[in-house]
Amino acid sequence: MFNSLQGLITEKSGDGVRLLTGGVEWDIAMPAMDLHRLPGAGSEGKVFTWLYHREDQMKLYGFSDDARRATFLELLKVEGIGPKGALKILGGIRQEELEQALESEDLSRLEAVPGLGKKTAQKMILALKGKLVPAAAAAKTTGAYSDLLEALAGMGYDRRAAAEALARSEAELAPGTAEGEKERLLFKQAIIFLSGS
Q1: pTM surpassing 0.85?
Q2: Torsion angle (degrees, nearest 10) of CA 110, 115, 116, 118
Q3: What is the DSSP string of 75-112?
Q4: CA–CA distances in Å: residue 31 to residues 65, 70, 90
């Protein structure tokens, strides 16, 4: 639906931002760390978004980049973590620290995040170890290739391995490959790398 919104920042508060685009002012909830990365009120800003919709409620969540949004969506898959909880977790730990804590199973670091208890931290490690894309790899797979990453993750491939396979495939792509052909070749080559063929 919405991938991102770009416009004039009219207000920044402790739990979100208001962004004016084409005469519509959006009220967007954001993690504190992502909010700090935006410029101040009166400046132009871009926010990657996700719409939460239930029968009785609609809320727009925002993130500083694609990797943060992907992490938020992965957190929602962990039993006991809802949108508010995921937002609070992302507000209390940097992306790189979260990835490192999950990979090294550092329970004490996760428990230090405000509002995150031992049981939920253990569930996060079980559910998310190996699933988050490292920030550096995510930066290489934004834009057109983020769709390929999502497709590979949807097929059951590990998100981190898929990001690395796409980056590796892009490095081996013949110079001058036509744009239309590029995505097809990257996808095909990434699957070859991921299957170990």
Answers
A1: no
A2: 110
A3: HTTSTT--HHHHHHHHHHS-HHHHHHHHHTT-HHHHHT
A4: 12, 13, 6
pLDDT per residue, tens digit, the chain (197 aa), is 678 999 999 999 888 999 999 999 999 999 999 999 999 999 999 999 999 988 888 999 999 988 899 899 999 999 999 999 999 999 999 988 998 999 899 999 999 998 899 999 999 999 998 777 554 455 454 455 677 887 887 788 877 788 888 888 887 877 777 877 888 888 899 899 888 75
Looking at CATH, the fold of the domain delimited by 66-128 is given as DNA polymerase; domain 1 (1.10.150)
Indicate the fold that domain 4-63 takes in CATH.
Answer: OB fold (Dihydrolipoamide Acetyltransferase, E2P) (2.40.50)
What CA–CA distance (Å, rounded) separates 2 from 13? 22
Q: Output the six-digit token pair for 106.
A: 């550092």
Please answer whether residues 91 and 33 qualify as being in contact, where contact means their C-beta atoms are separated by less than 8 angstroms.
yes
Tell me which residue has tokens 């230090």: 112
